[in-house]
Amino acid sequence: MIRKIIAAVVGILAAFALVMAIKGLGYELYPLPDGLDTQNLDQMRKHVESLPPEALLIVLSAWIVATMGGGLLACIISKVKPLLFASLIGLVIMGGSIYTMLEIPHPPWFMAAAIAGILMAIFITVRIARIFVKV
Question: Can you say whether the dihedral through the CA atoms of 23, 82, 111, 45 is positive or negative?
């Protein structure tokens, strides 16, 4: 039981770390404007509207990579039920992404791609875990 709890916690933490790392790279390529108050939702909404699609693709890739990386790590640690652990991590990332998209509106194509991408990442993670991880 403790192994499963550790697997879930470590998977979620790893997923969040991946999101932050990839988004950090995105900020290097597309820095926040000087004076932008990231706590001000109106300013953040305007900023997101001004971003090129490439910048949004970095965020999308962060969510997908985090789902796969955190999910696979959780599957490796747990050694059981890859569908459960990959889904758990994916649903946590999806919850965070939906919250973000509700707080700061994103283009419709991005929202659809985010949901589809995270669901596909869960599916792929389960397949990889079943093949390569002795679960």
Answer: negative
Give a yes or no: residue 105 inside a domain.
yes
Residue 40 maps to a domain: no
Total domains in the fold of the chain: 1
Query: What tokens were used for 73?
Result: 């790590």
Please name the residues in contact with 122: beta carbons below 8 A apart, sequence gap of 6 or more: 67, 71, 86, 87, 89, 90
- Tell me the pTM: 0.91
100 in a domain, yes or no?
yes
Q: List pLDDT tens digits, range 8-26.
A: 999 999 999 999 999 999 9
Please say whether the dihedral angle defined by the alpha carbons of residues 94, 96, 101 and 103, taken in this order, is positive or negative.
positive
Structure tokens at 15: 């997923």
pLDDT recorded at residue 135: 57
Identify the CA nearest to 53 among candidates 120, 122, 113. 113
What confidence score (pLDDT) does residue 98 get?
Answer: 97
